[in-house]
Write a structure and sequence with these properties.
Blueprint: H1 2-8, E1 22-27, E2 30-36, H2 45-52, E3 63-68, H3 80-86, E4 91-96, H4 106-113, E5 117-120, H5 124-130, H6 132-140, E6 144-151, E7 156-158, H7 176-188, E8 191-195, H8 196-202, E9 217-221, E10 240-244, E11 257-260, H9 267-277, E12 282-287, H10 289-297, E13 303-308, E14 317-318, E15 325-332, E16 335-341
Parallel strand pairs: 3-4, 4-5, 6-12, 6-13, 8-9, 8-12, 9-10, 10-11
Antiparallel strand pairs: 1-2, 1-3, 7-14, 13-16, 15-16
Amino acid sequence: MKRALQLAKNGLGVTAPNPMVGAVIVLNNRIIGEGYTSAYGGPHAEVNAINSVKNKSDLIKATLYVTLEPCSHYGKTPPCADLIIKHNIPNVVIGTMDPHDKVKGKGIARLKNAGCNVTIGFLEEACLEHHKRFITFQQKQRPYIILKWAETMDGFIAPLPPKRDEEPKPYWISNTFSRQLVHKWRSEEQAILVGTNTVLEDNPKLNVRDWTGKSPIRVIIDRNLKIQGNYHIYDKSVKTIIFTEVEDASKQFADIDFETIDFSKNVPEQICRTLHKKNIISILIEGGAQTLQSFIDSNLWDEARIFTGQNTFGEGLKAPKSNGKLHETLKIDSDLLNIYKND
């Protein structure tokens, strides 16, 4: 199962909205096949693992280890449970149940009814952690939300305007290694979100540059459409969703997905509902302070990844405040990275 979890991580950033599953097939304490979920629309982990077995007759005596319950319904691909039954695999060890309404025990029941010896909950805690994005999406009807920001040693997220250059660009607090890590994170999540002021002040591209991987869907909050067409978010290089209260926004900018919401009501809740409908299972929120704090205040977040740089501002925009539980502390060269969980 540890090997299955290791394999499953290869699907990070490419399988969504499907879960990134890992599967290992064992015969006589020897691995004879393994696989992980292909990019969205491709074969699932169990299919890839079975296909990798050279001698298919070995399957009738083998054990399949899989991080998540095999699916039992037709989607982009046929049910994995049926394929396992077809090859007469007698033993199936499952890390955790699939919370999806179309599966949720149905895959296990189908395997058992076919005579398979099914073990459930093996290394379950590790499997739940691995599948946290998919499970949160299914159970809470919203994306898995990761907050990220960098703050100075004296607790500021940005300097006062006089410290900035006239042209909008980032004012770095974290070091180059931390910034590269952020690009890795971007490649792992399905979407990235920032507010209006972050775009106006920094003109970010919000893509993956210092790492190899797929750029996330850009999600922007721009109530009154203050951001003009010359900003990077309008360059059409990446799918972009803009939340606004301007109802005819699509007439001003083509090829942008404008979503109209009511800014007099809870904005984070409305964003989460819309992203859930769009099958976006995870999002990285990078700023600014007001946007980050709004999700914290609405208790709509799962992780907060906070860098502390070695510089001080003395004055500026105060960093958000969260009440999460410290999960891990890492040193990224000169920076300190604290990871909090919203338990």
